[in-house]
Design brief:
It contains nine helices and 17 strands. The chain has 414 residues and is α/β, with parallel strands linked by helices. It has two domains: 154 residues, Immunoglobulin-like (Sandwich), CATH 2.60.40.3500; 231 residues, Zn-dependent exopeptidases (Aminopeptidase, 3-Layer(aba) Sandwich). It is elongated. Bound molecules: zinc ion. Zinc ion binds next to loops.
């Protein structure tokens, strides 16, 4: 019954999309609707939840659910959520909604995600249009608690055609012998889109890392030591699994994930280079890796089955061969940063279970350039001259590592 209702909602969304497309052709509507923060409300009702989301005009939308934790996902084509105050909305449903995120999920698509304290399903869903004779629209969603079996069945229902996010193609590029051909470096600016990462003083980790990755790409290309592929070129959300898949497709020799996170204590400063470790070096590193998986979940990603990517004896063997090369890469980066007199964290080489570092056959490291929560680090990250020094150090570190790595393989890089 509920499944049927949701299916008809999805169908309505598609119909609306076609209608909006027609209107667009006549130039009557802008494609991007704005969320009206002041007119939107979230509250508890009849043991469930009620959401009224006010929009500047109607857009195509659909509802779906994910589990572990139970999440409501509402996708739109498309909504500017900047005027929506998530903390204010959640204030009235404390404990029932444990997290709320809204923002761009990829080009032309926006997403609202609510983490729920228990399984709930849609009892009513509609978009009211032409409100008060104007262009305004109101998305009304009513949720009621559901038993786990009904919820699991709804989660398992496939996306309607045209609404599924593209799955990463897992066909790796043919691998060239180690040390031959140009070094292929995949740069991974952390976070993006719906997931801004750490935020401080109006700056977001996602934006700062995109800026830095572009500059580092320039520096690597100018130095003539690498061909560079980026996991994202703009402010869009890229699932962790897709980031690893991009590295495989590119035939990456090196994967560098770039971050500048916040720590709750606000005392940590300086750069840290992380490698993959099942047991984290310390509690702060474990918390950091967990938070990155949580950010991915809250962007509406289903992490169940993701470890299939990295399972199996062959993977273990590949990792055993890769791990010492990865450790040397991390050491080379830290040494180059120290040589450039860049500020390092007091323990600059650490390990944690970052999902994005799980490619078994590609030396992968995660660089925390500094902490956005430290005013001094944030000032450095915002300074183009400081970023140029950091980019130069990473180029130097990669360069010395690749020469050593090729020599270790008994080959010369051409
Ligand atoms: Zn991060």
């Amino acid at each position: 019954m509920i499944a049927t209702l949701v299916r008809s909602i999805a169908a309505a969304g598609v119909v609306l999309w076609l209608a909006a497309g027609g209107a667009l052709a006549q130039g009557q509507f802008s494609a991007l609707a704005r969320a009206d923060g002041a007119a939107s409300r979230l509250w508890a009702e009849d043991g469930g939840l009620a959401l009224d989301l006010a929009l500047s005009h109607p857009v195509p939308w659909r509802v779906r659910f994910l589990n572990a934790p139970p999440r409501l996902i509402v996708d739109f084509r498309e909504v500017d959520f900047r005027a929506l105050d998530g903390a204010r909305l959640m204030g009235a449903v404390r404990g029932k909604v444990t997290d709320l995120r809204a923002g761009p999920v990829r080009e032309g698509w926006s997403r609202l995600v609510l983490a729920l304290d228990r399984p709930q399903l849609v009892s009513e869903a509609e978009m009211r249009t032409a409100l008060r004779g104007g262009d305004g629209a109101l998305l009304r969603l009513r949720l009621r608690p559901a038993d786990p079996a009904a919820f699991a069945a709804e989660v398992a229902r496939p996306d309607p055609p045209g609404w599924a996010l593209p799955k990463p193609a897992m066909t790796p590029a043919p691998r060239k012998p180690r040390g031959q051909g140009p070094l292929v470096v995949v740069l991974d600016p952390g976070h993006g889109g719906l997931d801004p990462g750490a935020e401080h003083d109006g700056q977001s980790e996602a934006r700062l890392m995109l800026t830095f990755a572009r500059e580092l790409k320039e520096a690597l290309v100018r130095a003539g030591i690498a061909r560079v592929v980026m996991t994202r070129e703009d402010d869009s959300f890229v699932p962790l699994e897709t980031r690893v898949a991009i590295a495989h497709q590119a035939g990456a020799d090196v994967f560098l994930s770039l971050h500048a996170d916040a720590v709750p204590e606000g005392v940590a400063t300086g750069a840290t280079v992380y490698t993959l470790a099942e047991a984290a070096s310390d509690a702060a590193s474990a918390a950091l890796a967990e938070r990155h998986d949580r950010d991915a979940l809250m962007a509406g990603v289903d992490l169940t089955g993701q470890d299939d990517l990295i399972a199996g004896v062959l993977m273990d063997m590949a990792r055993r061969e890769t791990a010492p090369r990865t450790e040397k890469l991390a050491d080379a980066l830290v040494a180059a940063m120290a040589a450039a007199r860049l500020p390092l964290h007091k323990v600059p080489r650490r390990g944690a279970a970052f999902s994005v570092l799980k490619a078994p056959d590609i030396p992968s490291v995660l660089v925390e350039l500094g902490y956005i929560s430290s005013p001094r680090d944030l000032a450095r990250l915002s300074d183009p001259a400081w970023r140029a020094t950091m980019a130069g150090a990473i180029v130097a570190g990669l360069s010395s590592w690749s020469v050593e790595d090729a020599a270790a393989a008994g080959l010369l890089r051409q």
